[in-house]
């Protein structure tokens, strides 16, 4: 169902803030691995768009997740930065 | 009291805890219509001597959770402290407030007569909402302490 695919794609661009309004507030990106966040956001999308739906769970979304690229966190140190760091280190050592 | 000052000195390790396993029995179920109810498949609990349930609800309405053995609800006695207490007669379910995390502890499976006669997987756990839910979901994890 195209609407589910669109809802998942939308959900994967969202984030969820826990303990909002408190000092312990923390935001998390919705990913394929955050089952609860994903389901809650897909449901939110259905509500916003007025799409009727019945009870569903993460298991029902799994068949639609295969075609979606993983949105795992990218490494902070890229190969380019790594080379730059190495050069800086060598310069510091006088090599 | 002896205090370690050398970080290289190995720490004394005292093992505590129990040999247990965790199973997600409801994986983010977005319950919808009033009186909607979802059951697990029949579970084999004979390998556990006790179990706890961790319930994470983001539903906007109150829900309930219960356990069926041979299609009869088994009693949940202490709803005030959300503690399971199983007897072998018809009972009720545990209320789960809207939102929040709950721990249902501890089901002593060995001590409960209803479980002593189990020979096949015939335990089902069910979750339900009495009124229509419009947002959120419910996740339930079973922590079983192995025999």
Compact description:
The complex is a heterodimer of chains A (95) and B (147). Chain A is mostly helical and 95 residues long. In chain A, 49% of the residues lie in helices and 8% in strands.
Written description of the protein model:
The complex is a heterodimer of chains A (95) and B (147). By secondary structure, chain A is mainly α. Chain A has one domain. Helices cover 49% and strands 8% of the residues of chain A. Chain A contains four helices and two strands. A two-stranded antiparallel ribbon of chain A has the order 1-2. The radius of gyration of chain A is 20 Å and the shape is elongated. In chain A, 17% of the residues are buried. Chain B is an all-beta fold. In chain B, the strands form two sheets. In chain B, strands 2, 4, 5, 6 and 8 form a five-stranded antiparallel β-sheet that branches. A four-stranded antiparallel β-sheet of chain B has the order 1-9-3-7, with no helix packed on it. In chain B, strand 4 and strand 5 form a beta hairpin. Classes of the chains: A mainly alpha (95), B mainly beta (147).
